[in-house]
Every structure is written in C-alpha cells, then in structure tokens.
Amino acid sequence: MKGAAIYFSGTGNTKYVVELLVKEFQEKNIQCEMIDILKEKGVSKEYDFYVLASAIHVEVFPDIFVRWIKENLPSVDNKRCIIVSTQASYIGYGGRQINKLLSNKGYDVMITRSIPMPNNYYLSKFFKETPKDRKKEMKEEAVLEVKNIVDKFLKDEGYIEKQSALLTAVSKAAYKVSLKHFHKWPKKSLKVDYNRCTKCKRCVNECPTNNITFGDEIEFSNKCISCFRCVQKCPANAFLYKNKHFNQM
Ligand SMILES: Cc1cc2nc3c(=O)[nH]c(=O)nc-3n(C[C@H](O)[C@H](O)[C@H](O)COP(=O)(O)O)c2cc1C
Q1: Sign for the pseudo-dihedral over CA of 91, 115, 13, 131
Q2: What's the average model confidence in pLDDT over 129-151?
Q3: Strand segments (E) across the chain
Q4: N or C: which end of the chain has fewer CB within 10 A?
C-alpha cells in the first residue's frame, strides 16, 4: 500500500504533522510520500490512499490549498482519504469545507481531524502567541493524535470530526472578506529593519505567491495570502510591524 500526503504549510506546523503521519505509516511498513503543493503541479492517481493537510486561515482551508485540490487533484475511483488541518484552536472547518469536493472527485473521506498547533498569527491582543509550555504540549499531543489517525485508518474505521455546516459557511464567507485585506497588508504595514536584513532573499524565494521582490529594498505586491512564512522564517528576524520585531514562533 502506498499513499500520498499532499499539504500546504505556511510556517511549518502542518509540515510537522505530515512528517509525523509519514513516520507513523512507515513504522507500519506503509510508504507515504510528501507532496508540497507549492512545489508540485499534480499528483498521480495510482496511490492507494491520499492525505490532504493544510493550515487553517480564518477557520477554513486557505484558497491556495482549495484551488490546488480543485485544479490538480485527479479524479479517482473510490480511493480512501484522510483530511487533516492544523490550527491554534481545537477545531477548524477544513474537513467539512472540502468534503463534497473530494466526494465529487471519487474520494472516500474516512477521517477528518483538526490538530491544534501553535498559533503563527499574533498581530493583535485578540490573537495571542501560544505560551511556550502549551507549544510543547501541542507537539506531543499531535504525536498521539497522528497515532490514532493511522490506527483507525488501518482498521478501516471512520474517524470523522463533527464540524458544523453553519459555522463552515460563515467561516468561508469571513475568509473571503479577510483575504482581500490579507492581499494588501504587508505593503501597508510591514517594514524591514535593514540593520538586520542580510539580503539572503529567503523571503523572496519562499513566498508562496511570489509577492516579494528585492531591488535595492524589499517590496511587496498585492497578492499576499498572509501565511506568515516571510515573517516567521526570516533568519534575521528583520521584519517590523508597528515598528516592532516579531517574536518568531
Ligand atoms: C492568516 C491566518 C489566519 C489564521 N486563522 C486561524 C483561525 O481562524 N483559527 C485558528 O485556530 N488558527 C488560525 N491561525 C493559526 C494557524 O492555523 C496555525 O498556527 C497553523 O498551525 C499554521 O500552520 P502552518 O505552520 O502549517 O502554516 C491562523 C493563521 C494565519 C496565518
């Protein structure tokens, strides 16, 4: 049996969970390949099962992930599928959001789980950074949940999280409105501390939407999806918001 774990991870939390899943399958002698949607334009329909995993943005899966599934995930004849999200709270509505899309493409969604991971988005007092101790706990709890997922999957048991249809619909609408703001926020609000910036261009090269260019200075365009990769992953922590450096996750 061979699986494909297709994922979108802005800042590494989802990648961490997908790596755990792959390791857990490997321990059961099952191969599962990681497929980063930012690097691959498609996936074979010959896999025996599929994992779809992404970060949650505004309670749902971000547009970049949903679009990839719509455009690049092949139609299949009844292949088993696991949907996983990572988010700072206990629940995201990604599973419910893409369930129908996957069913229409011939996938049998057996498992949908939301796995809490540290918050990577804390610009205001409403969205706080996860405390250090809790971050450690979350990473440990994720290991247990991944074991559960693989265990249930191999026993062919359903493990579907209850996700409200109403809240999914409200969240989808809220995401749509937020995305318009996300597109522009770095241009408006992010500055660079050139005393720190080493011009390594990691932000330029790793931005999922090619939203950053570097001439003499860093410039943002208007297609940010607010994944926070540039800010969280800058090796020099050179970005400034309201004239302050971030506490990187
Ligand atoms: C723009 C944005 C919106 C987010 N919205 C939510 C949210 O609505 N609920 C939540 O629990 N976490 C939210 N988060 C936190 C992320 O879902 C969480 O940190 C996730 O694990 C990040 O995964 P990644 O590192 O793979 O990108 C948000 C993060 C970002 C960047």
Answers
A1: positive
A2: 97
A3: 2-8, 31-36, 49-55, 79-87, 107-116, 159-160, 190-192, 212-214, 218-220, 239-241, 244-245
A4: N
Domains in the chain with CATH codes: 2-167 (3.40.50.360), 182-245 (3.30.70.20)
Q: Whose CA is nearest to atom 27 of ligand 1?
A: 10
pLDDT in tens, 150-170: 999 999 999 999 999 999 999
Share of the chain above pLDDT 90, in %: 97
Whether the pLDDT of residue 235 is over 90: the answer is yes
Cα of 99 vs centre of ligand 1, distance in Å, is 20
How far is Cα 224 from Cα 218, in angstroms, rounded to an integer?
Answer: 14
- Express each pLDDT in 29-76 by its tens digit: 999 999 999 999 999 999 999 999 999 999 999 999 999 999 999 999
Residue nearest to atom 16 of ligand 1 (CA): 87
Distance (angstroms) between ligand 1 centre and the Cα of 39 equals 21
Task: Please compute, for residue 160, the number of CA atoms within 13 A of its CA located in the half-sphere on the CB side.
Answer: 11
Tokens of residue 215, six digits? 């001439």
- pLDDT-derived band at 125 (thresholds 50, 70, 90) equals confident
Pairing of strands 79-87, 49-55: parallel
Cα of 222 from ligand 1 centre, angstroms: 20
